[in-house]
Design a protein that fits this description.
The chain has 335 residues and is α+β, with helices and mostly antiparallel strands. It has two domains: 170 residues, no CATH class; 146 residues, no CATH class. 23% of the residues lie in helices and 37% in strands. It contains eight helices and 18 strands. Helix 7 crosses helix 8. The longest helix has 19 residues.
Length: 335
């Protein structure tokens, strides 16, 4: 058999395998660049913020050559991509929502995030957990998905098992614990304040450098529930760069993940880094959404959906949303 005929045969076999993968009972096929949500049977971080369907688990496909078969009955997420990449390239991710019991006894929202990449014809995965408080967790509740890819031999290669995902949430790795030490989150609220306000810093304790500030403001809200605060139609979610060192690729991917990359007002952020003290604001006035950046404001019907996704899916959003639901306490040093 010639090289060409052998190559065609492998591709045909892979195609047949994919056809089988995408016709499984209870399976959904996702293809093309985009962000897709699916149901979390174990609940969402902030309850009704996700809507009635609890569709807060996420698949993101970064390029049109990536396909995913989601089998909710077998709890399998299967990625397919036959393209060869000249350098390591992110092709998609999986985000699963769950919860765990902290040592304090409080149930805390937890998010597992797996980022899939390809270099040449090889797959690789990096993963980490998001949590609004530190430490180890018990009684982990998360949908028991395994994450797999279809390789050249048309067989499944499991990158992450359900048990590995639970272990990563319950007992963060040394690398994850060290990362948490270097990420500082400061509560900027005065005692009794209702609106969430945090600063994110990088570094050890007082030597840390502030890189971003995030605030949620809902002047008409009667309580601390996020969904109710947004439903009353007057709110703002503000992100401010406190440093010019936020990586451009991080900003660009966030614009993609939260449905903002097509906004003409935000096109400068696809070309350059966030500048120090620049602010990006999503909000609504009397139920009408808008986006504000660089001193300009435009109507944006998708502001509500983008803000909800950010609050549930991102680390900053998870901490901000958690703080919104907790009463502000007096600072130990009087600040």
């Amino acid at each position: 058999m010639t090289f060409r005929s052998s190559f065609i045969a492998r591709r045909l076999a892979l195609g047949l395998a994919l056809a089988g993968a995408f016709t499984l009972a209870n399976a959904a096929d996702f293809t093309g660049r985009g962000v897709f949500n699916f149901k979390s049977d174990t609940g969402c971080p902030f309850g009704t913020l996700a809507g009635k369907g609890n569709d807060c688990n996420r698949l993101a496909l970064d390029d049109p050559d990536t396909r995913v078969a989601l089998d909710s009955a077998a709890h399998t997420i299967r990625f397919v991509n036959t393209r060869s990449y000249g350098e390591k390239t992110i092709v998609g991710d999986v985000l699963l929502q769950g919860s765990g019991q902290a040592r304090s006894g409080q149930r805390v929202p937890l998010t597992f995030h797996a980022l899939l990449s390809r270099s040449g014809n090889e797959w690789s995965v990096s993963s980490h957990a998001h949590s609004p408080v530190g430490g180890e967790f018990s009684d982990i509740r998360i949908d028991p998905y395994r994450i797999a890819v279809v390789n050249e031999s048309t067989t499944d290669q499991v990158l992450l098992s359900a048990d590995q995902i639970v272990e990563a949430l319950a007992k963060p790795s040394l690398t994850a614990r060290l990362a948490n030490v270097f990420v500082q989150v400061d509560d900027n609220r005065a005692e009794g304040a209702k609106d969430a306000d945090i600063t994110i810093g990088l570094g050890l304790s007082r030597a840390s450098k502030s890189v971003a500030r995030a605030r949620f403001h809902a002047p008409g809200a009667k309580g601390r529930d996020l969904a109710e605060a947004m439903q009353q139609g007057n709110w703002t979610l503000e992100l401010q760069a406190l440093s010019g060192q936020i990586p451009r690729q991080v900003v660009q991917r966030d614009l993609f993940l939260y449905g903002l990359e097509s906004q003409s007002l935000l096109q400068p952020l696809l070309q350059r880094d966030f500048r120090k003290n620049e602010k990006l604001v999503l909000g609504a006035t009397n139920g009408k959404g808008y986006v504000r950046y660089d001193g300009q404001q435009r109507e944006f019907a998708g502001a509500d959906a983008a803000a909800r996704a950010f609050l549930q899916d991102s680390f900053i959003g998870l901490v901000l949303g958690w703080q919104q639901q907790q009463p502000a306490k007096a600072k130990a040093d009087g600040r």
